[in-house]
């Protein structure tokens, strides 16, 4: 408590000294300290301002004012209408018998602190002090870069932010679906990451002033898995298509085999078309030699998977009978509907 009292007294003494020197008060003229009946020392409520905004500082004058000044950390900013500050952001707003107001534009953190309005009348000195608090919007200063990992790896994401008041930081995944994550600070830890955790992660830093948001893309690589192949029946001389679908990151490359022999595009009237996760093997004119078992292999740098598909003979007569049967069923249904009416 003694230390605090010492600095308070020192501040008051420094203010009084600056005030006395400024106005060249004779030594015999009393400049009273707090508690004297001829002095008036007031403390106004704190002023809170956002970084970049303008703050106005105002104090009352009263009758018979001989001198007045605004000070910041014992440095004189304005003495009456005379500007002492070299800061171009500081300017005089009002100076009359009732009010002495200055303003500071584009406020920054360096402007935070105590300001004193000192007024000297013929009978006493008056000081009015106010503390300016500068609030700073949050800014994300350090963010993990987009990340590519293999499935099963441990992932650590960081999002550090500055601001005043200190911002709170939170994480959520916003794609493929929005979902809050159990993280209330700048670190997000994911143990043994799965492919389902891949997506866009959003870091939010927020305080009383504003919000800052940035995103990180997490890509999870995994080996291919292929859907079970569906056997295809084709009539001799017709077109047949075998399809192979694979789920993989990065996307899989496809290869087709007949027994142990690899099939290449445009070989013996066969076309191979790969499009994203799907590969098609097309026979434009199926011959006897085309019937048999085919293997589709999907591969990327993490592994491979395969499935077998049979191209079998579909009897033309059987197909015709099947079509006829369908037609007959449609006719029967139509007759039943007509009989109801």
UniProtKB/TrEMBL annotation:
Gene3D superfamilies with a match to the protein in the record: Immunoglobulins
Record key words, sorted: Disulfide bond, Glycoprotein, Immunoglobulin domain, Repeat, Signal
Keyword Disulfide bond applies = yes
Taxonomically, the superkingdom here is Eukaryota
Signal sequence bounds: 1-35
- Enumerate the spans annotated as Ig-like domain: 26-127, 138-219, 224-312
Family matches, as PANTHER family: IGLON FAMILY OF IMMUNOGLOBULIN SUPERFAMILY-RELATED, NEUROTRIMIN ISOFORM X1
Q: Report the family membership.
A: Belongs to the immunoglobulin superfamily. IgLON family.
Give the protein's recorded name: Neurotrimin isoform X6
Q: Which organism is it from?
A: Clupea harengus (Atlantic herring)
Taxonomic lineage is: Eukaryota, Metazoa, Chordata, Craniata, Vertebrata
């Amino acid at each position: 408590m003694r230390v605090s009292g010492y600095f308070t007294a020192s501040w008051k003494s420094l203010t009084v000294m600056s005030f006395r020197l400024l106005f060249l008060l004779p030594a015999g003229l009393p400049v009273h300290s707090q508690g004297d009946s001829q002095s008036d020392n007031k403390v106004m409520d704190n002023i809170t301002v956002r970084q970049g905004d303008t703050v106005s500082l105002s104090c009352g004058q009263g009758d018979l004012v001989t001198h007045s000044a605004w000070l910041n950390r014992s440095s004189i900013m304005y003495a009456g209408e005379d500007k002492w500050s070299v800061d171009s952001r500081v300017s005089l707003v009002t100076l009359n018998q009732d009010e002495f107001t200055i303003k500071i534009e584009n406020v920054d953190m360096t402007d935070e602190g105590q300001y004193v309005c000192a007024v000297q009348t013929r009978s006493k000195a008056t000081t009015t002090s106010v503390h300016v608090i500068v609030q700073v919007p949050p800014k994300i200063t350090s963010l993990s870069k987009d990340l590519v990992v293999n499935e099963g790896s441990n992932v650590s994401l960081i999002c550090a932010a500055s601001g005043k008041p200190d911002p709170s930081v939170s994480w959520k995944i916003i794609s493929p679906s929005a979902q809050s994550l159990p993280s209330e600070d700048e670190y997000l830890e994911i143990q043994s990451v799965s492919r389902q955790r891949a997506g866009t992660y959003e870091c939010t830093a927020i305080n009383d002033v504003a919000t800052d948001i940035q995103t990180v893309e997490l890509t999870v690589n995994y080996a291919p898995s292929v859907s079970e192949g569906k056997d295809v029946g084709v009539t001799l001389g017709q077109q047949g298509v075998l399809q192979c679908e694979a789920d993989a990151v990065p996307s899989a490359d496809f290869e087709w085999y007949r027994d142990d022999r690899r099939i290449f595009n445009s070989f013996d009237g066969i076309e191979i078309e790969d499009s994203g996760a799907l590969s098609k093997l097309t026979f434009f004119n199926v011959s006897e030699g085309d019937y048999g078992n085919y293997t589709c292999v999907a591969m990327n740098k993490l592994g491979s998977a395969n499935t077998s598909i049979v191209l079998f003979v579909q009897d033309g007569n059987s197909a015709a009978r099947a079509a006829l049967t369908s037609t007959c069923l449609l006719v029967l249904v139509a007759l039943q509907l007509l009989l109801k009416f």
